[in-house]
Each structure stands twice: as C-alpha cells, then as structure tokens.
Design brief:
Blueprint lengths: L4 H13 L2 H8 L3 H8 L7 H32 L1
Helix pairs in contact: 1-2, 1-4, 2-3
Length: about 80
C-alpha cells in the first residue's frame, strides 16, 4: 500500500531539515509525535501539515529557481 501524503510530507521535511528532531523543533512538537507520523500510526494536525507543505513548497521553488539560473548561465557560455 502506498504511503499516505502525511507520511511522505514528514519524510520530505526530515530530508530538508536534516532530522526528525529538527522537524519536531520546527513544528513545536515532540520528536515522538514526528516518529508516529513517519510510521503511519498517527497524522499531524491540519495546521502542522500545512506548515510542512509550506516548507516543502519553499524548498522546491528555491531549487527550481537555482536550477533555472544554472541553466541560464550555462547557456550564456555555450
């Protein structure tokens, strides 16, 4: 069975911030809560989920902008 969007979002936030503990600090929750979300035993409250989505969106947009600048510079020198 596919992972729930909540689990995937917490996994992505963990990759962005570096650890479960960092996600917990970012959201103001206990690390054990983050672990329960990662394991699919619970789901974050909607307001916390939306903060995760915002974090992921900002990181994704930043990465896309960086890639665009790199491509533009590469194309200028070609």
């Amino acid at each position: 069975m596919a992972k729930a969007v909540y689990q995937r979002s917490v996994e992505m936030a963990t990759q962005i911030l570096g650890s479960n503990e960092a996600v917990a600090r970012y959201l103001g929750v206990k690390p054990s809560e983050v672990l329960s979300w990662l394991e699919g035993r619970a789901e974050p409250a909607v307001n916390l989920f939306l903060r995760l989505v915002d974090l992921i969106e900002r990181k994704t947009v930043d990465a896309a902008r960086t890639a665009t600048v790199v491509r533009s510079k590469r194309d200028e020198t070609a």
